[in-house]
Design goal:
- The chain is of the alpha/beta class and 248 residues long.
- Helices cover 36% and strands 25% of the residues.
- The chain contains 11 helices and 10 strands.
- The strands form 2 sheets. The protein has a 6-stranded mixed sheet with strand order 6-7-8-3-9-10, with helices on both faces.
- The longest helix has 16 residues.
- It is globular, with a radius of gyration of 18 Å.
Length: 248
């Protein structure tokens, strides 16, 4: 679904990504693992067209999108759920979900979205229970469900999730990741950025380890989770060490 080659990204004069090569395959969960500041969020922002970037990002069915605006990218089904959820606190749950239809429904569109709404409520029954509550009144886990539900309302072709477990209790994280797996089992390719490396490697099919704006290691997730370098840097008792422990 996505093929990225020699991707560079910049914040002003600072080069944050330094030649990323990677792919997101149809029907697979691909995860990105790395320390804070490694470039994971920057990579998602680059795909979404939110920052200056060069190189190549090929999207299945749409071709090259490196030169496209973020509105174009969203309208063509590459949907980004940002770190921190960013729901609208003064809108109800249902209104937040309706916002997700704008890229295909339009601000004053006439196309029905009952089917999409029913699918989101089936995936996250709690959102239907709280459909008339304001966004600010939801728990952290419910807000994350709402952010993902809003993305699903956008009819994604690729779903990009940035740190969905951040700030959530373990029991909520487990429930949320079960939902991510369910979404993927419906055929949805997922690009997942996640600090919880163990959980990310358990549910994903393929993984990329990023450090200093570069991919330093990649491979099938079931292999990487048993790689001694990954275990030491991310999964073992020394998991708080920087990724300089991983060397090709």
């Amino acid at each position: 679904m996505l093929k990225i080659h020699d991707l560079h990204a910049y914040y002003g004069p600072i080069e944050a990504l330094k030649g990323i090569d990677m792919a997101v395959e149809q029907g697979k969960i691909t995860c990105l693992i790395g320390s804070n500041g490694a470039g994971k969020t920057t990579l998602l922002k680059s795909i979404s067209g939110m920052i200056k970037r060069t190189g190549s990002i090929m999207a299945a069915g749409d071709g090259e999108i490196i030169d496209k605006h973020s509105r174009y990218i969203a309208r063509h089904g590459i949907i980004h759920v940002p770190e921190g959820r960013h729901i609208f606190p003064g809108l109800t749950v249902r209104e937040n979900l309706e916002v997700g239809t704008i890229n295909w429904h339009g601000f004053f569109g006439n196309q029905p979205y009952t089917k999409e709404l029913e699918e989101v409520y089936a995936l996250f029954p709690r959102l239907e229970e709280r459909k008339n509550q304001l966004g600010w009144s939801l728990s952290g886990g419910e807000q994350q469900m709402l952010a993902i539900g809003r993305a699903m309302m956008a009819r994604p072709k690729v779903l990009m999730l940035d740190e969905p477990s951040m700030g959530l209790a373990p029991i909520v994280v487990a429930e949320l990741f079960e939902k991510i797996v369910q979404i993927n089992q419906q055929g949805m390719p997922v690009l997942l950025v996640e600090q919880n490396a163990k959980l990310a490697l358990e549910i994903s099919h393929y993984a990329y380890i990023i450090d200093g704006g570069k991919v330093i290691l990649s491979g099938p997730s079931k292999e990487l989770k048993n790689d001694p370098r990954v275990v030491e840097a991310y999964l073992g008792k020394f998991a708080n060490k920087c990724q300089n422990n991983i060397v090709k």
